[in-house]
Amino acid sequence: MTFAKTRLETGGKVVRTVCPLGCGIGCGILAHTKDSVLTRVEPGDHPGTGHICARGLCGPKLVYHHDRLKHPLKRQGRRGEGKWERVSWEEAMDSIAGRFSEIAAKYGSSALAFVSTGVGAMTNLLTVGFAGACQGTFILPAGLGDSAGPCADQVCFGSFMWFGEDYLNRFDIPTLCLVWGNNPAETEPFKWRRIRDATEQGARLIVIDPRFTTTASKADEYIPIRRGTDAALALGMMQVILKRELHDIPFITKHTVGPFLVRDDNGLFLRGRDIGLPDADAYLVWDQHTFQPSAHATAGTKPALTGSYQASGIACRPAFQRLSDMTAGYTPDRVAEITEVPAATITALAIEYAAARPAASYRGMGCTRGSFHGDLSFRAINTLAAITGNISFEGHSTTMHDMALFFTHGFPSFVTLLQSYEAITAGNPHPIKALWLARHNLVNQDPNFNKITGELIPDLEFIVAVDMFMTTTAMYADIVLPVASFYEFNDLIVPIGNGSHPYLQLQQKVIEPLYESKSDLDIYSTLAKRLGLEGYLDQGDEDYIRTMLGTGHPSLENITLERLRESPMPPAPHDVPDFATTSGRLEFYCERLVHLGQELPIHMEPLESSCSKLADRYPLSFSQTHPKYRLHTMFTNIPWIRELDPEPLLEMNPVDAAPRGIEDGDLVRVYNNRGEIRLRAAVHPGIRPGQTNVCQGWSPSHYHSGTHQALTHETINPAQAAIYEPNSAFYDVQVEVEKASEEQT
User: Fold this and answer.
1) What pLDDT shows up at residue 641?
2) Buried-most residue among 5, 641, 664, 736 (CB within 10 A)?
3) How does DSSP assign 381-394, residue by residue?
4) What pLDDT shows up at residue 209?
5) Would you state the pLDDT for residue 146?
6) 613-744 is classed CATH 2.40.40.20
7) Which residues of the chain have pLDDT under 70?
8) At what angle do helices 148-157 and 374-387 cross, to 10 degrees?
């Protein structure tokens, strides 16, 4: 059936739009309306973007849900008590503007903080820009479990390739697909499509994960690994590859910092200035023709990758030699003790990976969240790919840049998500006293629920929640504003998920905003007038989308709003450096982390693990993986979804359940020194012994008591803070589990 015939049969209208939800995939969809009512949705008609999942199919159910916020609300009684008064938009805006002005006068404008997550490019930039216009603070949201990978890629590649996987995966036909802590069969359809295309043409699929996921069930080989030890496995593979001389010397020499000399005394790269060369900033290599140090770019130089040298009395070694020296200690036997993967499996995997040209590595949230040191896991995987030449440059030129339209009224202050905790409670680096939350479910999704509700919320003088539903966070707000659904306004969707596609798409308005809801642009525009920001945000959404597309960046050449109405478009090819690092090469050696002893991607044990002292009290590791049928907290209120996924369950292995007297379906108590939850157990062998898991996104009301975020912590990783943004290590958690009495609930 053609789409034209569908239009004729329904007697309605079909609008080509896109799902912009926080998974970052950007699935193109066709939205059907009749009499201005959204009736159903189906996959889009563009072959590169058309897809729809169970969540996407529930779009109309979400839009017309009876619990949707319909008008502004003002708190009555205590925060969290659930008593509200309906107010007009005028009263809500006057109240917000008045409180913002009072707090700015008392503490400084930087005490006004803003955070947003999970919608289109324009809407997200609106929040950043509005924070700047107010001279307030924007809270960087990537630390909500998603920043360890970008930290690693910033070190290695100089850009956040985590969001595109361009370097590691964009091969035409890989002969080996290595999936690390990732479940694309359930969560990333376009990535999974690429993997399945490869396997259908003969590629082997190997999955490394503590859980036997849907992706693992389709693999040729499944390797259950101890949580948080991915870096050790990659280092063990490197040890085997280097010992057997299976590494790619030409690639390492040409594209990495492998030949660059590193000083033994301070761990920094040897530069021209260190030995008095005219080019003071030049990176130096040891020339095997002249037996002298030379600038790396000097014509005819034959740089050494190994050895120890003296350069004007300075002892130094090539970075590759330092990597070789470090990995020599990660023998298969030692790595087997760390990872609980057999030594023979490690050796065989390393040999197969080195021989497979090309091999694609698909890295996932399990690596970034599985350990406090998730960045080291990604850096180790990147380095493994680099020494074997399994890095592709294809596709790098399609990265989007330079859409910071709304910075025109000044830059805000920035704090990271985890740093905001101390800013709120202790005023460091500056006080935060008012918090604007645009679709950000802080109380439910951020780490350490009891600290948030017991310390952060009480220390905030004013909270505004902008959302479609009365979320766990909105319950603690002072003002709640009803925001439009993504079917009710225009936006530009730039793919950011590592399981996405390369197309820009137009999120087209399908229906008018329901009830009294407003788009983010309308909300910010109205508030800007109340705050005296004259002339700010005084245009429509289509005008701003045109301005974003007209920034002049070469990736946007010939891309217009009108063309995007007709079809998705890939960013225009343009010349960019192979790597955006200072050296212009892949940097598996990082000068900025020498002071922390992490200049190379070493293995570091998670803060909380079965090898830590904490395991004496809390012997089981705990993770909270992405659900198949929900997007974080979204869709838990949709009956269709609840039929498929009715309640939260704690996955645990029979080996762990039996000595605790726990059987499948029993009510259990999961606890540590921070908090607890009570829920039903799902006992099965698909999760390795010592590991437990709950699919995240459930709210406290869905549990028999407690919440999974009461188990987590907000500890800041200094290495990640030095590079980009410290990550919430949601899986770096130890717990104990016991059978609970039904009467305890």
Assistant:
1) 87
2) 641
3) HHHHHHHTT----T
4) 96
5) 87
6) yes
7) 1-11, 22-24, 118, 161-172, 393-409, 496-499, 576, 743-745
8) 40
Query: Distance (Å, rounded) from C-alpha 464 to C-alpha 468?
Result: 13
3-state secondary structure of 645: coil
Return left, alpha or beta for 658; rule: phi > 0 is left, psi -120 to 50 is alpha, else beta. Answer: alpha
Closest CA to 554 of 571, 537, 532: 571
pLDDT in tens, 117-144: 867 889 888 999 999 999 999 999 988 8
Contact 504, 494 (CB under 8 A): yes
3-class DSSP state for residue 289?
Answer: coil
Give the domain ranges of the chain: 148-393, 613-744
Taking the C-alpha atoms of residue 263 and residue 252, their distance in angstroms, rounded to an integer, is 19
How high is the pLDDT of residue 490? 96
Q: How far is CA 471 from the centre of its chain?
A: 22
CATH 3.40.228.10 fits 148-393, yes or no: yes
Amino acid at position 643, single letter: E
Sign, CA dihedral 114-116-120-121, equals positive
Locate tokens 């070469």: which residue? 554
What local confidence, expressed as pLDDT, does residue 4 receive?
38
Start-to-end Cα distance in the chain: 53
Compute the distance between CA of residue 739 and CA of residue 658 in angstroms, rounded to an integer. 11
DSSP, res 647? S
**pLDDT reported for residue 626:** 86
How far apart CA 133 and CA 114 sit, in angstroms, is 12
For residue 162, the model assigns a pLDDT of 45
The whole-number pLDDT of residue 628 equals 84
Q: pLDDT per residue over 595-635, tens digit each?
A: 999 999 999 999 999 999 999 999 999 999 988 888 788 88
Query: Across the strands, what pairs with 318?
Result: 261
pLDDT at 393: 59
- What b/e readout covers 219-246, taking b as 16+ CB neighbours within 10 angstroms? beebbbbbbbbbbbbbbbbbbbbbbeee
Contact 733, 621 (CB under 8 A): yes
Question: Residue 206 to residues 219, 231, 292, 374, 480: CA-CA distances in angstroms?
Answer: 6, 17, 45, 20, 47
Q: How many CB atoms lie within 10 A of CB 304?
A: 20
Contact between 41 and 31 under an 8 Å Cβ cutoff? The reply is yes
**Interatomic CA distance for residues 317 and 82, integer angstroms:** 64
Tokens of 301: 């130089």
Asked if residues 339 and 232 have their Cβ atoms less than 8 Å apart, the reply is: yes
Whole-number pLDDT of residue 375: 96
